[in-house]
Structures are given as structure tokens and as C-alpha cells.
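User: Please write out a complete single-protein record containing the residue sequence and its fold in C-alpha cell form, without commentary.

AI:
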Amino acid sequence: MFKNILIPFDLSAHSTRAFKVAVDLAKKYDSKLTLLTCLEGDAWHHKYYDSRADSELIKKQKKVSQKHLEKLEEIAEKNNVSVKSHILKSKSVVNDIVVFAKSRKYDLIVIGSHGRTGLDKVLLGSVANGVSQKAKCPVLIVK
């Protein structure tokens, strides 16, 4: 049923919980997992913005992300689940996740939700909600 599962991972406890749910599903359905981390530079560009700062920020984010992804890959391997990871530089996290999932024909997206409501949701947005609205495959949101 779900042979290829995508797990967007943002280093939060919510996305770690989603990963663990995906591992359980992968064991049940003999699925392959892919972890996807989208890195964003400084979203608040201004008139005197120096793009070199973006490169440094992305470099640091990538280094931290790789450490987290390696730990998750170990968990998957201990559970005999095949896992790959990808890190993308992103301008629109929701769109990049949806395009990545569609272009590689994933059967399911398992994504963690921070559960933001009210003003937080308006100001910060909801990646999980955006992905669930735009994705062509089923999306499992884990809180």
C-alpha cells in the first residue's frame, strides 16, 4: 500500500514523532523511507542585505541537520527499515515538499505538526496544513 514514504523533517520533536510513526508504518508495509529537510536562508531580506550571510547560515543549518538525520537513520536501520535523506535549500518549504513528493511518486507523506492556532498560525503559517492542502498523495499529520 505505502511503498515509498516521505517524512519532512525540521529537527523538532513533532517531526521526530512523525518519523517514529513512519518507521512503524514502514515495518508494517515493508516501505522505504525518505527524510527531507528544507533549509531556508534569512527570510527577512532588507535593502542592505548581504547574500554571503545566507550562505553561512545555510552551511551551519546543513551541518546541524546532517547530525540529526544520521541519528534517525540509525533508528531506522535498527528497525530494518530502508531510509535515505535529502537536504534542500528552499524558498518555499510547502511547495518544495509537495514538488519533491510528486516528482518522486511518494505514496504517503508523514509530517509532524506543531499544532499552532490563532495568531501564531497566521504569522508563522502551517507547513503541515499547506502540504496537506497541496499534495496529491495521502498526508498523515502527527501531533
The beta strands are 4-8, 32-39, 82-89, 108-112, 139-142.
